[in-house]
């Protein structure tokens, strides 16, 4: 965690302070037992999985497929503490519960959160 935290601190000039909440680094450290190399490996794996899951989500037509992909994305986001993605998914599910459909706006918000997390991970992994 210390190595990752120092990389994170060094990258703050590139990444806004608001991004501190994109990935919960304390949670990530607990999940990786403090192993900085494992943290980077987990983040990179998450980044690839999140991208492919979101792309698959965009191709879904059936509501049940969308729900399934949202659940999958939520679970991988929870594994690394990707708070903004989890929040976007919760908002999408709430929107679905109210309106009975997944709006393109809520799906786009999830995509934005995924890309924001991927950029953040790329910056702190350098």
SSE topology:
Elements: H1 2-11, H2 25-31, H3 36-59, H4 63-80, H5 83-99, H6 104-124
Helix pairs in contact: 3-4, 3-6, 4-5, 5-6
Could you explain how this protein is built, in words?
- This protein is mostly helical and 126 residues long.
- The protein has six helices and no strands.
- It has helices at residues 2-11, 25-31, 36-59, 63-80, 83-99, 104-124.
- Helix 3 runs antiparallel to helix 4 (63-80), helix 4 (63-80) runs antiparallel to helix 5 and helix 5 runs antiparallel to helix 6 (104-124).
- The two termini are 15 Å apart.
- The relative contact order is 0.17.
Short overview:
The chain is mainly alpha-helical and 126 residues long. The radius of gyration is 15 Å and the shape is elongated.
The helix/strand order is: HHHHHH
Level-1 CATH class name: Mainly Alpha
CATH architecture: Up-down Bundle
Low-confidence regions? 5-19
Average pLDDT rating: 85
Q: Please give the radius of gyration in angstroms.
A: 15 Å
- Distance N terminus to C terminus? 15 Å
How much of the residues is beta strand, in percent?
under 5%
Helix percentage range:
over 70%
CATH topology: Four Helix Bundle (Hemerythrin (Met), subunit A)
Tally of strands:
0
Counting helices, strands and paired strands, the structural category is mainly alpha
What is the 3D form? Answer: elongated
Task: Please outline the major beta sheet.
Answer: none
Number of separate domains: 1
